[in-house]
């Protein structure tokens, strides 16, 4: 139980294009999903918190117009990297909180999406 | 900035040995703490939660010292499969997401 999937697992795109990453909770409802980013040899950094049916809350320094987040249902959140540039190349990981089980702060992670912008 | 600090290592340890990691956190209002394990180019996976009373799960023992804002992880009888990066994580205290340390890289040698 508590499985989170992400799609795609890997994407290579040209500079200037937009990339959409999907995060799904497969066997539970997630009122809150989180998007993290991890650069090589760095820790995971929270980008934004996504609540179903409302606007995402972005961390300081993360551009909301560049990283568009939509959480339209209790099982799906999407992150769109608009006009991607090489410096956006990173490992993007989503996580979800299952409101029905586990401690409030426990999160279940997706397998991540490795984005490479040429 | 609310941070979690860890020694990045790497820790090179012979198989069967006991190894200890620790980390410190700066947000005194943090409510929950975890150790996650991350293998190369994979997502982090929850290893165990950390409680003030200390908790044990097989070969793994975690301890929290709120007064010192210090968290530890002890691995006994280390296995080759324990080789990974261990992430110290805090939650709560005004932050909705998890705050990750940079991780401690462990290499178990045969």
Describe this structure in words.
The complex is a heterodimer of chains A (118) and B (110). Chain A is an all-beta fold. Chain A has strands spanning 4-7, 10-13, 19-25, 32-38, 45-51, 57-58, 67-73, 76-81, 90-97, 108-109, 113-117. Chain A is 0% helix and 50% strand. In chain A, strands 2, 4, 5, 6, 9, 10 and 11 form a seven-stranded mixed beta sheet that branches. Chain A has a four-stranded antiparallel beta sheet with strand order 1-3-8-7, with no helix packed on it. In chain A, strand 4 (32-38) and strand 5 form a beta hairpin. By secondary structure, chain B is mainly beta. Chain B is 0% helix and 57% strand. Chain B is built from no helices and eleven strands. In chain B, strands 2, 4, 5, 9, 10 and 11 form a six-stranded mixed beta sheet that branches. In chain B, strands 1-3-8-7-6 form a five-stranded antiparallel beta sheet, with no helix packed on it. Chain B is globular, with a radius of gyration of 13 Å. The model of chain B has no long low-confidence stretch (mean pLDDT 91). The chains are: A mainly beta (118), B mainly beta (110). The A-B interface holds A 32, 34, 36, 41-46, 49, 57, 59, 91, 93, 95, 103-112, 114 and B 4, 31-32, 34, 41-46, 49, 87, 91-92, 95-103.
Task: Jot down its keywords.
heterodimer, A: about 120 residues, mainly beta, B: five-stranded antiparallel β-sheet, about 0% helix
How does the SSE layout of this entry go?
The complex is a heterodimer of chains A (118) and B (110).
Chain A: E1 4-7, E2 10-13, E3 19-25, E4 32-38, E5 45-51, E6 57-58, E7 67-73, E8 76-81, E9 90-97, E10 108-109, E11 113-117
Parallel strand pairs in A: 2-11
Antiparallel strand pairs in A: 1-3, 3-8, 4-5, 4-9, 5-6, 7-8, 9-10, 9-11
Chain B: E1 4-6, E2 11-14, E3 19-25, E4 32-38, E5 45-50, E6 55-57, E7 60-65, E8 70-75, E9 84-92, E10 95-100, E11 104-109
Parallel strand pairs in B: 2-11
Antiparallel strand pairs in B: 1-3, 3-8, 4-5, 4-9, 6-7, 7-8, 9-10, 9-11
């Amino acid at each position: 139980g508590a499985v989170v999937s992400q799609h795609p697992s890997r994407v290579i795109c040209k500079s200037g294009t937009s990339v959409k990453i999907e995060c799904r909770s497969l066997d539970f409802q997630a009122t809150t999903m989180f998007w993290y980013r991890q650069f090589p040899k760095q820790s995971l950094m929270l980008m934004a918190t996504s609540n179903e049916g409302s606007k995402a809350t972005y961390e300081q320094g993360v551009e909301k117009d560049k990283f568009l987040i939509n959480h339209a249902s209790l099982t799906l959140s999407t992150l769109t990297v608009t006009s991607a540039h090489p410096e956006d190349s990173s490992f993007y990981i989503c996580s979800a909180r299952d409101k029905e089980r586990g401690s409030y702060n426990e999160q279940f992670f997706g397998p991540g999406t490795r984005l490479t912008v040429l | 900035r609310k941070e979690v600090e860890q020694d990045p290592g790497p820790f090179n340890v012979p198989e069967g040995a006991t190894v200890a990691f620790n980390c410190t956190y700066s947000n005194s209002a943090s409510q929950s703490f975890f150790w996650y394990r991350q293998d190369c180019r994979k997502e982090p996976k929850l290893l165990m939660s950390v409680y003030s009373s200390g908790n044990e799960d097989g070969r793994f023992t975690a301890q929290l010292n709120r007064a010192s804002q210090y968290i530890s992880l002890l691995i006994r009888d280390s296995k080759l499969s324990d080789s990974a990066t261990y992430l110290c994580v805090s939650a709560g205290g005004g932050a909705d997401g998890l705050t990750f340390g940079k991780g401690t890289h462990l290499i178990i040698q045969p």
